[in-house]
Amino acid sequence: MISRHRLCSLLLGVSTLALSLPILAQSAPDTGPAPLEEVQVTGSRVIKSGSDSPTPLTSVTADALLSAAPSGSISDALNNLPVFSGSRNSFSNPGSNATGVQGGNGSANVLDLRNLGAYRTLVLFDGHRVPPTLYNSTVDVDIIPQELIKSVDVVTGGVSAVYGSDAISGVVNYVLNRNFNGETMHAEAGESQYGDARTWDIGGAVGFNVGSRGHFEASIQHRDNEGILDRSSDRSWDDLPALQGAGTAADPYVLDNNVRLRTYSFGGLITNGALSGQTFGANSTLSAFNKGISTGSSCCQIGGSGAYQDASMISPYNGTQLFARYDYDITDDVHFLLQGAANLKQNVSYTGWNQLASLTMSSTNAFLPAAYQNALAAAHQSTFSMNEIWEGAPRIQDVSNTQQIYLNTGLEGEVFGADWNVTYTHGTSQLNTQVNNLPNADRLSAALDAVVNPATGQTVCRASLTNSAYSNCVPLNLFGSNSASASAIAYALGSVDFLTHTNMDAADSSISRTLFDDWAGPVTAALSAEWRRETFDASSNATPSDYANCTSLLYNCTSTTTIYPTTFPNSGTVAQSVGEGAVELEVPLLADLPLIKSLDLNTAWRFTDYSTSGNYTTYKVGGVWALDSDLKFRVTTSRDIRAPTLYDLFQPETVVPGNFTDAKTNTTLYVPSVNLGNPNLSAEIGRTQTVGVVYSPSYIPGSNFTLDYYHTVVDNAITTVQGFNTATQQACYASNGSSPYCPLIQRNAAGTVTAFLVEPENIAKVRTWGLDAEAGYATKIYDQPVSVRVLANWQPHIYYIQPGVATIDQGDAGWGQNGLMPSPSVQLAAFFDYQPTDWIKLDLFEHYHNHFQRSGVAGQVFTDPYVGSFATTNITATFDTGPVWKADASSVYVSITNLFNATPPLSGYYSGTTSAGAAYEFSDDPTGRAFLVGFRIKG
């Protein structure tokens, strides 16, 4: 395996070599045969003009995206478009996400069209499938070479018949600038007005001809963000909010502030016996626990002595992206390409402090003051129980290191009037997640049982007196939040590592040509074939079967106690392969008739055979009717698929403990959530219809208007059914135990919940519809260019229909189960550009979403059922400094994001009532007003 250091050095060397070769660049002629570049419209292999596409297509240049939101990342800016709802990024309430719906990295940058799931959005790079970089088959789009992207095409409709599985909600295609010549670089730095969220970004690219037939280009970019580390204190508006209540008319959900856990304190709350109801403070002294104000949830209180969590608000990250490409014209008709990309990235997030539940403490513990020992002795009490949020120790820290590699090579050309290409792609992604500052059960148990060594008079661990395995044990004092010594904390805490590899090898080919001319124009056909093989494996140093060794340990250790509270699986290599073949036709039907300037039919059909989940057919039929030169109508219908991923099928057992409420008894328990795979899954079937109009009035030069209606239904949808989910539990209880959900709730003989199971099932239907609209206008004012572009999406409903469970309408709703992100029903993005002089350019960007419901679960009652609307304004001023830098083009730019310092509205999550300080609280970027300055040079 290539090490991170060697890989970085290798690709950095390639880029550095390219940047240091001006002589070679000058030795080649400045002009020459450009690399063969077929004009291709995303969403089709035969249509050559985007305006002729029956499937809705939005194209945005990289310059426009970065001018409106100059964050250094095209993908961050792309998420401002209204069609993207539900995408995850660094502020998506990051947490401990080494397993689950987020694909192993909760801070990964993923694209999600219409909030139907990022795994139903297909990502392409220059028309070719990008290998998955996360093990749930989603793509962290930071692997795309940002420096050399020309534009991004977004197809908002099902196109599995053209590109294969996963293209249910649409396709995002990053279009590469294959013909870049010259040098460019940029550097920028920024921070929020609060002095945090500091960012810096530096990058550059080079491109030049090599001889008369070759071309080379390369880029490198490094980004760094310090993040916002403390949710409880870094923003005044985030005052420990959490939804409280049961969601009923008698006990409605209410979004309270200053919410704390009523059965935990930071110093240790005694929960039984003679000293019950008292909490430890400074110098291990006890005082009465202040119960604060009761809420509608049994777990929590407002204010008082209760403890809370403190998760990070924006995850810090740093990453380096590298890219290199070589093109060569073997002949005038045959073209060779070789390209590679790497993304070396680290995300860090904090989930809060360790939650120590039901600790059994000896009444003669050496750290317990004598007065309390005497009181317990008088009560004939040999032990007592204690709960504590361990604020005195470091917070649990998740560090995700990703090494993502993408290689692609191929041939393309023309023969007998046909355009053809053959390519091979290899992608590999290594994700190493390290969860730090977790208690080691053996060591914690030993360290908590502190006694006085009769031989020395020193306080030691009891186990060290009888078992040499604990000779280095450091006794731990938890009586008070800051009572533990640094050496004791270091002894009791450890780290868990989880390593996964996701690989894809793919070969694809296509050929297209005009077959003949019919009465209305040329009939064009394309044939394509593809083969892919994906593999996945995982390993961990703390598995669910790694149990503590309780020898010599009296308390807090049992035969079923895992060494670490968070465990991850080992998995041998699992694999699946797929073979596909497809045909596409573009047939002109009518032309140059009254009210019919043209009428074209586009159709595609694909056969897909998965080694794991069977074979399927997909199709797309669409048409475009041009009434005249100004007005066009378009319509499509498609059948699409998403096959289950390897992780859906073969996910090994994973155990993650947490606070969960038993809906049957309305009690909160700290129990494990057990995640499982399901090898019996089959593919999802999606059906999408779109109807739209494109209007470019000739009497308003420079204007363009589009309006498209879409309707998507996904049958046999794979959904992760969570046993701890309230709706799932209620479906079981309502069935008197006959529901298929009941096995997901495990109880002991006494009827107490011992674990909740979580597994994927083909059990749901997803249905959504809405409207996309766009209006653009470009003109000149006193010979200076000005343009405006407005994009809008209206998506009133996203129904998740599941048998035996109330339908969830995630449209116009907040956080939902299975990781569903908030989905406002109305989103707007407006771009306004004006260049008042030849050396100043102003870019204004406005993003807005309407208010939406807190939950899409029917029947839930809230005192305030809505999350407020939110709008932000970004402004960027760019100053041409070409004469200063003596370059072909250079500029300095200053940007203010969230100009009016809008505060994101708090949303809350109905299943997060027990997570004070760590719940899903906000839906929008919490940074606030931020400032950025940078420069760009192009030679």
Task: Note down, in words, how this protein is organized.
The protein has eleven helices and 45 strands. By secondary structure, it is mainly β. A hairpin with a 7-residue loop joins strand 33 (684-695) and strand 34. The chain is elongated and about 105 Å long. Residues 1-39 and 94-102 have low confidence and may be disordered.
Question: What would a concise description of this structure say?
Answer:
The chain has 939 residues and is mainly beta. The protein is 9% helix and 48% strand. The N terminus is likely disordered.
Please render the helix and strand layout as text.
Elements: H1 4-19, H2 22-27, E1 57-61, H3 62-68, H4 74-78, E2 121-125, E3 128-129, E4 149-155, H5 160-163, E5 170-176, E6 182-192, E7 199-210, E8 214-225, E9 242-244, E10 254-256, E11 259-261, E12 269-270, E13 278-280, E14 286-288, E15 293-294, E16 300-302, E17 317-329, E18 334-352, E19 355-362, H6 370-378, E20 383-389, E21 396-415, E22 418-439, H7 441-448, E23 450-452, E24 459-461, H8 486-492, E25 493-518, E26 521-540, E27 571-593, E28 596-610, E29 614-626, E30 631-642, H9 646-650, E31 654-662, E32 667-675, E33 684-695, E34 703-722, H10 726-734, E35 745-747, E36 753-781, E37 784-802, E38 805-809, E39 826-837, E40 840-849, E41 852-853, E42 866-867, E43 870-880, H11 882-885, E44 889-897, E45 930-938
